[in-house]
Predict the structure.
Amino acid sequence: MKDIKEAGRIHASEALVIIILLVISLAFIMPIFLVLMNSFKSKLFVVNTPFAFPEAESFMGLRNYIEGVKATGFFRAALWSLFVTVFSVGIIVLFSSMTAWFITRSSDIFSKGLYFAFVFAMIVPFQMVMFPLTKVANLLHLDNPAGILLIYLGFGAGQSVFLFSGFVKSVPIAVEEAAIIDGCNPVRSFFSVVLPMLTPIAITVSILNTMWIWNDFLLPNLVIGSEYRTIPVAVQYLRGGYGSIDMGYMMAVIVLAVIPIVVFYFACQKHIIQGVTAGSVKG
């Protein structure tokens, strides 16, 4: 009888946890659903009845998408977003992994100080440095799509080096010693032996930085401005005279901007947990 009561309590607690998680999930999904629903409504109905389903009077079909794409130059902006995201993430993964490997395998004061400098960089708010950064970017001629890659490297290196360092500690140093005995120099040992073993955390770092860079508005807007518009920057150009905004167009463009990153995340989400947990203990 006692066992039955305990089993009932366990099932009740599990049901409560499931209900709480469902409520939290709905809280996250609801804004996305509202944006999708309002992307098919005219701007008047988006403002007046944002929570109502599209009806015959308010339904716009694909007009918001077509006009929103034209108004923002969406496809050109998507190409710039793709360029900046892909190359920034590639540079961050390459240089952060090399730095983390060097820091982890070295035991001098310089390496420890360098590690803490990267950790400190994680807690510095971007708003504190955005205006000096803009000035320096102009002076060094980094205010272009190629230059912003280096800026993203600077901002993304802190978290990336931190994650890579935790994973490198789980890589047996005996593997590298065996490679050196076989004739590999340190550089070849890293690229031939260590880097392939860092694949799980490299995927994790890639996912996190891709989601950040693809959705970033402030840095591209400050550094490269309107000449090389990424998608977040292009969306703001839907604002008309006297601050008027066609919310229907904006909702449609936001949906188009979100789709690639959502698909990418769902395709790779399992690697986030694998990468973080694999580097949480030293093997």
Notes: The chain has two domains: 2-38, 63-278. Residues 26 and 33 are 10 Å apart (CA to CA). DSSP finds 13 helices and no strands in the chain. Residues 2-38 form the longest helix (37 residues).
